[in-house]
Specification:
4-stranded parallel beta sheet; alpha/beta; about 800 residues; 8-stranded mixed beta sheet
């Protein structure tokens, strides 16, 4: 059985596609795994880009007799199952019009119009080249990789060119790539260049040209662009071309060497294959000897049709033609193999006896062309041998691309290098890749890739600012606002650092914040701790003196037990300052404010009890006064216990309702993370301070009124002065505390504790220690009871 296929060549005098076609047929017929016991036949027709010749070839192909009479069966049987063609869009439509009558598959391996993708108009058409849309994605990614954002677009004046511009322009805009020039040119006729210098000015800043290439218009477009560059743009060296051409550009660039006499870069995409050709400027003259040996061609005139055709007969094996294969005509080679695999699947299914195709059952009878469509549409389900190239469910080719860079050397030789790939089935972030080892080849040419931008890049730390009336790519740069950064060039917006970081000086990266608290290892913490230790030992020393001299009149005067309570309270208050120094913990946060407030309440209550005792003692000396019975330990103890209990109740309510807890303050200081104790309830915190202030105010008032009572040693004077110091410290504490941040707030409170406690200790007990140690002659009952005149 001999199914026939028809390739229509896509370029005049191009025999390489035919050689690839013949070599693929030869391989398939020699492979026992593909179409066993079936010989794959073929007919080859040349259309010369002529519609009349194309129709004549199609009529001859569809006719079974010697004359070109379709639908007239005479003589030989027509085994045509598919037509493989490489015609342009216009001729491809003519072919479809005739093949559509017979539902014969039409497989194209050439550039055709986007309209051919419409399956309602062309249901029997199959492309062996991928859709342009996926290639556009690769072009955009290539531009972004090399940071080319100022480009020009060129396309022929036809439907394909219009759709190229309308499809690619919004994709470029969505990726912040601007089109400086969008030029269209006639397909075949060289236009009259009426461009002025003003209209050519946008070209000067553009170094990258994206060119939509078609077979017939390829040279015309390049010629036009080079003429414009030569006339209006100086210098013109170092221009970058990115073309949509999916064929091997070796012969194309070599034949148009006069257009590339200056240094140019040329990028294109090719379908990935396992076959790697050698680009050695292979020309048809190299193939001619093979053709003469392998084929015997002669002219034969048919009697009925009167038409003379060149007929060729194969004489030698086609293995010797393998060197003629290049990656360009490998598309035709691959297309034949794709059809052979689909045909093999069709004939393999015949042995299953039953197969549902469009609602009818097919047994062992001969395969019809209209039944072949089912296998072409399902080609991807069983194709595993064509380099990852397959037809999807819509009959469209799905394939990966290699990205090639082409260079035309001064000696007109052409070299290419694979620099990357575009993988259709890969993850989106890995679909595009540039081989850095291959990119070394680019740098080895001693010609750095030129930039193509409307403006200089904004460095890190700056943000792009769109200028009114200018394209998006022609932006200005502005420094990021305070507290934000931009870590990359040409940032669209500035970002804030995370809570535990802050911007560096250049605002191009985030730096970890410093963790800070009132530490024992820092100078401020060491100073406060040292003062607290010194005052603690001083208080202990004074307490020891009072215990040693407890039987002396000055110690016994004004209630010795109150003095002990006051000294112990002051000792504990100095020690409580250590709760404020060091890393805040849950336990220290719960204890620091409550312990401090209760201890200070006991101390102030003791001073208040001393003051009231002084006043009552003076009143008791008057004859007939009944105050004498209030004097004694019971009154003093009652004052201390009752006043302190109120503070204990307030602290208990505080801990029960909203206790303090440790927290990290990320926002108070821009470069610091402040570890501190959150007071839980600010109202309760100031209630505690307010109650201590209330006790101190009462104590100060009573002591001030009793300061002039007669006596050689009137303790009310000492208490007045000590409470004056105490109140001054805590009155200044509130505004100072509110105006500081972080560890300095804690330091202010520790200083207030130490200063107020030291004021009470110094003003009340230092004069007594002076008399006890240095003036024992004054430590007598007679002296203490002597009235001052």
């Amino acid at each position: 059985m001999m199914p026939y296929m028809l390739p229509c060549r896509r370029r005049e005098t191009n025999l390489l596609d035919n050689l690839a076609f013949l070599f693929a047929i030869h391989e398939i017929n020699q492979d026992p795994r593909i179409l066993p016991n079936i010989t794959l036949g073929y007919n080859i027709f040349e259309n010369y880009y002529n519609a009349r010749i194309t129709y004549d070839a199609m009529a001859d192909l569809l006719s079974t007799g010697n004359a070109n009479i379709p639908n007239y069966r005479c003589g030989r049987q027509n085994d045509l199952l598919a037509v493989l063609e490489g015609a342009d869009s216009e001729l491809s439509v003519h072919i479809s019009n005739m093949l559509g009558i017979y539902k014969i598959p039409q497989v194209s391996y050439s550039f055709v119009s986007h309209d051919r993708n419409d399956k309602t108009q062309f249901p029997f058409f199959y492309r062996m080249l991928p859709k342009d849309e996926y290639q556009y994605t690769g072009i955009v990614k290539l531009l972004l990789h090399f940071r080319w954002t100022w480009v020009s677009l060129f396309a022929p004046e036809n439907d394909n060119g219009e759709k190229f511009l309308s499809a690619l322009t919004p994709i470029l805009a969505s990726n912040d790539i601007c089109v400086a020039v969008s030029q269209r040119f006639p397909e075949l006729i060289v236009p009259d260049l009426s461009m002025t210098l003003d209209s050519a000015l946008p070209w000067k800043e553009v170094n990258v040209f994206v060119y939509y290439a078609e077979i017939r218009s390829f040279y015309n477009g390049i010629y036009l662009i080079n003429i414009i560059l030569k006339l209006f743009i100086q210098p013109i060296d170092g221009k970058v071309w990115i073309t949509t051409a999916l064929w091997d550009l070796t012969s194309t660039l070599s034949d148009s060497k006069f257009l590339f006499q200056h240094s140019h870069w040329f990028f294109s995409f090719l379908i990935q294959t396992k076959y790697i050709p050698k680009h050695d400027n292979f020309k048809l003259s190299h193939v001619a000897p093979y053709l003469k040996k392998a084929f015997h061609c002669f002219f034969k005139k048919h009697v009925l049709s009167g038409k003379e055709r060149e007929r060729c007969e194969q004489k030698l094996p086609l293995d010797m033609l393998a060197p003629a294969l290049s990656q360009d005509n490998y598309n035709a080679y691959r297309s034949i193999h794709a059809l052979a695999h689909a045909l093999n699947a069709a004939y393999s299914s015949r042995f299953k006896r039953v197969m549902l195709v469009e609602g009818s059952k097919v047994g062992l009878q001969k395969l019809q062309a209209w039944q072949f469509h089912h296998f072409l549409r399902s080609f991807g389900s069983y194709n595993t041998s064509l380099d990852g190239v397959y037809l999807d469910g819509d009959g469209e080719l799905s394939a990966n691309f290699d990205i090639l860079n082409w260079v035309v050397w001064p000696n007109t030789s052409v070299a290419s290098q694979r620099i990357g790939s575009l993988e259709r089935q890969a993850f989106p972030d890995k679909s595009f890749s540039v081989d850095e080892d291959a990119a070394m080849w680019l740098r080895g040419l001693n010609r750095p890739l030129p930039p193509s931008r409307c403006t200089r890049s904004c460095p890190p730390g700056y943000v792009k600012v769109i200028q009114e009336g200018k394209p998006l790519c022609c932006y200005a740069c502005a420094l990021c606002p305070e507290g934000t950064i931009s870590a990359q060039e040409d940032a669209n917006h500035c970002t804030e650092c995370s809570e535990d970081q802050y911007p560096n000086k250049d605002q191009d990266q985030c730096v970890p914040k410093i963790i800070t608290f009132l530490s024992f290892n820092k100078y401020l913490g060491i100073l406060l701790a040292s003062v607290a230790i010194y005052l603690t030992f001083t208080t202990g020393f004074i307490l020891g003196i009072f215990i040693k001299y407890k039987e002396t009149p000055i110690v016994k005067a004004n209630n010795r037990d109150l003095s002990y309570i006051l000294l112990i309270s002051l000792l504990l208050s100095f020690l409580s300052s250590f709760l404020f120094i060091g890393r805040p913990r849950r336990a220290t946060c719960l204890l620091r404010q409550t312990a401090f407030s209760i201890i200070f309440s006991v101390a102030v209550s003791s001073v208040l009890a001393k003051t009231i005792t002084v006043v009552l003692a003076f009143l008791a000396t008057k004859p007939g006064n009944k105050v004498r019975r209030w004097l004694g330990k019971s009154l003093a103890n009652t004052i201390v216990i009752s006043c302190s209990s109120v503070q204990v109740v307030i602290c208990t309510i505080w801990l029960g309702m909203s206790p303090p807890f440790p927290e990290s303050d990320m926002h108070s200081q821009p470069r610091e993370i402040i570890l501190q104790c959150n007071e839980g309830s600010v109202a309760m915190f100031y209630t505690v301070l307010g109650y201590m202030g209330f006790l101190a105010a009462i104590c100060f008032t009573v002591a001030f009124l009793a300061r002039k009572l007669p006596g050689a040693f009137n303790e009310a004077k000492l208490i007045t002065f000590s409470m004056l110091v105490f109140c001054s410290v805590w009155v200044s504490f509130v505004p100072t505390y509110l105006s500081t941040k972080g560890k300095y707030m804690v330091a202010v409170q520790v200083f207030s504790i130490l200063a107020s406690s030291a004021g009470l200790l110094g003003c009340i007990f230092i004069p007594k220690c002076y008399i006890i140690i240095l003036r024992p002659d004054l430590n007598t009952k007679e002296h203490l009871t002597t009235k001052i005149k």
